[in-house]
Amino acid sequence: MSNVSLVLNGRSVSAEVEDRTLLVHFIRENQGLTGTHVGCDTSQCGACVVHVDGKAVKSCSMLAVQASGSEVVTIEGLSDGADLHPVQAAFREHHGLQCGFCTPGMIMAATDMIRRHPEGLDEKTVRAELEGNICRCTGYHNIVKAILAASEAMAKGGKGAAKAA
Amino acid sequence: MGIEGIGARVARKEDKRFITGSGRYVDDMVVPGMKHAVFVRSPHAHAEILSIDVSAAKKMPGVIDVLTGKQLKADGIGNLICGWMIHSKDGTPMKMGAWSPLAVDKVRYVGDAVVVVVADTKGQARDAAEAVSVEYRELPSVIQAVDALKAGAPQIHAEADNNLIFDWEIGDAKAADEAVKAAAHVTKIRIVNNRLVPNAMEPRAALGHYDRGDDHTTCWTTSQNPHVARLVMSAFYNVAPENKLRVIAPDVGGGFGSKIYIYPEEVVCCWASKKTGVPVKWVADRTESFLSDAHGRDHVSEVEMAFDKDNRIIGLKVDTIANLGAYMSLFSSCVPTYLYATLLSGQYNIPAIHANVRTVYTNTAPVDAYRGAGRPEATYLLERTMEVAARELGVSPAELRRKNFITQFPHQTPVIMNYDAGDYAASLDAAMKAADYAGFPARRDSAGAKGMLRGIGMSCYIEACGIAPSAAVGSLGAGVGLWESAEVRVNAVGTIEVLTGSHSHGQGHETTFAQLVNSRFGLPIDQVSIVHGDTDKVQMGMGTYGSRSGAVGMSAIVKALDKVEAKAKKIAAHLLEADEGDIVIEDGTLKVAGTDKNVPWFQMALAAYTAHNLPSGMEPGLKETAFYDPSNFTFPAGCYICEVEIDPDTGITEIVQFVAADDFGNIINPMIVEGQVHGGIAQGIGQALLEGAVYDDTGQLLTASYMDYTMPRASDLPSFQVSTSNTPCPGNPLGMKGCGEAGAIGSPPAVINAITDALGLRDIAMPASPQTVWKAANSAKH
To answer: What CATH class has B296-467+632-781?
Structure first.
């Protein structure tokens, strides 16, 4: 057993877990935050993307103990209260989701993508950067649209610019 | 249409929970005392089970129990069935081999479930599954349907000689033969439709919870049709009587057909819960999904299309072999028959058609409906054949199609279907205009100047949605009716709950169904809740597949709303001392037409429930139920055009533009409809360029993970240009046709027609991967 202590969505949490526990299982099963999803066993689908110390990480690809001491943000912690994060708002406005299963990972990956491209994004870059996130419903058309729109909205008005549609 | 009514591009109500991580899928469900199941599956494609030793596994840490097929059978759990009876042309019924939820004597494909381990944690269950010892005697296996029919092929089920399930035909063989003999030109081609894995992003899952005190079982399952699951598990699998079995399909992460069927795992989880006394949850790994979800397609067909001297089609002959895998899945038999061969007239006037279909067992995963289900196979066959014919005849592919279009409606085809409405030329014109078809030669030349090969291809598809009516499908062998139910509950404060037998797993019903209510009564969609997916809440319903939730599910809601409206008007007329014929409902108010007398909707509702002042003899309350059985299928149709650029040095195909012009009849929410088309096209392009389930000769699935099976990524796809030109469907009250499958049906032939155009080839195998295209491009050169 190993001790895992980390800051999860701004709250300090600590637990004893089996050594082999993956971060995604720590989040889902130990902490009961089920917004982070598991869609594959080979780290391809990206449904489990969270932010670890500000960077997008597939939470199935690291052990919970490796994240000990880190700050972890999941989809549940991306926005506070009633306001949506601009990326969440853009996914809704542009119909960037259907069944919703890949959506948390998509949004967490997109948020990180926008952060890494302060110069702005174009369609080709967005499509290339979505390599690690699979969606079966949308054909990506509206996901790409939503990310481009969110990127623009955030460049114009800072993080809080776009509110819920 | 109003800002939230029919036709409005309303953002989805359900999105809030999905974008904030508040969706609730089966794997998110936790029940006190819940334990975890892991299945031991066959590593062999075909083998006898000689012995099973679970003693070591039972001693592993955390293990509650380890259960086998023999125990399952001893408890009376039934075999899984196919619910659509097909008779061979000699009159004999289809040969359904026994499918035990846990294999007893024999395994028939890699992934066949043999033993279930229940333990405190999934990790412990997995560890214990490793300790289960199953002794097998391997048998020869057969993977390809064509091989399974050969003399001396391994016999998979004792019930089916030579692995033939049925040998079925439709149409007039003599007339089709005569047309071929009399033809000025016959195009002959072999058409192969590759096997696909549906791959909803949420893996299948089940949670069975037997309550000893109530002798009642609750099953949470990733289902597109929870009521059908309850009916089948109760009536055929002996899980529990219907009144003691509640099936809940909460948020479901995509289905595409693969979650229609009742699989071994949900049956076993319910049984294991009763057996062990603990709630039992199973969630598939992705590789487990690849191995055990029902696959799609896998047809091989020989085609002859006959033309007269004016290039009019005079006949079509088709001989198809369909691979149904190791067992007959729930609706597997209707896919290569009534959902396929009945669409072989396409958009064309073809006076004589004959199709023969043989379905075959192989040592592969069961095959059943996957997005489009039979109609993609029919469309691919026809539209590839039309393209090849146009090239052989030296005429424009567009004009050959146009010349043969059906233009008068209703139109009776020689293969059952009666098309009710359509305008195929309108879709063709719209697509050609949007694609700048006329400008293609110039684009091809400029691509050629850069050393690139550019091609263009089209596909004019028709499909049939809202499979019905119940009496007709019953006469064709269906074991169920294909109606839908709805219940509309107006609460005492006027808010509304619509309980529907349809199930949403991405389609946005919570929004579109509320838009319908908004259009009828003017209530904001926020005051309308859609309830689905729970057999304890919603009366019997048939679920969502075959693009039926609009045309059938919403029609049932319309019927219930009609009844609510009639009673509401009676109450309002009584309150306003007016004639009920003078009452109109506008913007949430019941008004006496032409006066300023009115009563707000909520006051009318309150009056219904206080019952202090109702018309004499009227029952209190305001809640109505309806069942709707359609009079016919609906017939969405359209034209897709794909333009590709191929790099002959790498074999990489880039889709430089993809245009879709669809006729879906009336549309509730264009944004959602476009989303359905985008997703369908992506799956169709996936089939054409990237996806294929590959078994090796020994029946091992080589493409059993996302490292091996090429799912379309964002960078594989373009943005799509979609549009609609709609002819309302005359067969249902909203004039809707359905849009869920069109993209997957229409797109594969458009892509392959474009690639073969670019390469100057007659045909190329799907998926046209870079390797396949490179080989073709370079062998064509030399």
So the answer is: alpha beta
Is the minimum CB–CB distance between A135 and chain B shorter than 8 Å? yes
For A43-84, what is each residue's pLDDT tens digit? 999 999 999 999 999 999 999 999 999 999 999 999 987 799
Supply the DSSP string of B554-570, one letter for each residue. Answer: IHHHHHHHHHHHHHHHH
| Prediction pTM value | 0.97
Place of tokens 């007239």: B345
Chain B residues with CB under 8 Å of A127 CB are 713-715, 717
Determine the residue among B4, B28, B201 to mutate to test chain A binding: the one whose Cβ has the most chain A Cβ atoms within 10 Å: B201
Coil, helix or strand at residue B388? helix
Alpha-carbon Rg for chain A in angstroms: 16
Please report, for chain B, the start and end positions of each structural domain, with discontinuous segments joined by +.
31-139+201-254+259-292, 296-467+632-781, 483-628
CA B639/CA A126 separation, integer angstroms: 29
Q: Answer whether A134 sits within 8 Å of B506, measured CB to CB.
A: no
Min Cα–Cα distance to chain A from B150, Å: 37
- In 3D space, the residue among A143, A129, A163, A133 whose CA is nearest the CA of residue A94 turns out to be A143
Distance between CA atoms of residues B208 and B172, nearest Å: 49
Of A32, A39, A126, the CB nearest to B203: A39
Return the CATH architecture of domain A2-77.
Answer: Roll (3.10)
Distance from CA of A77 to the nearest CA of B (A): 8
Task: State which residue of chain A sits closest to B197, comparing Cα positions.
Answer: A136
pLDDT digits (tens, 9 = 90+) for A81-116: 779 999 999 999 999 999 999 999 999 999 999 999
pLDDT of residue B1: 55
B711 with A134: Cβ contact below 8 A:
yes
Cα A54 to Cα A49: distance, rounded to the nearest angstrom: 12
Q: Does domain B483-628 have CATH number 3.30.365.10?
A: yes
Distance to chain A for B712, nearest Cα, Å:
8
Residue A42 touches chain B, beta carbons under 8 Å? yes
Given an 8 Å threshold on Cβ–Cβ distance, is B715 in contact with A35? no
Fold of B31-139+201-254+259-292: Aldehyde Oxidoreductase; domain 3 (3.90.1170)
pLDDT in tens, B518-536: 999 999 999 999 999 999 9
Fold observed for domain A86-157? DNA polymerase; domain 1 (1.10.150)
ipTM of this predicted structure: 0.97
Section B54-61 average pLDDT:
98
Q: What is the DSSP letter of B721?
A: E
A108 min Cα distance to partner chain B (Å):
10
Q: What digits encode the pLDDT tens for the residues B357-378?
A: 999 999 999 999 999 999 999 9
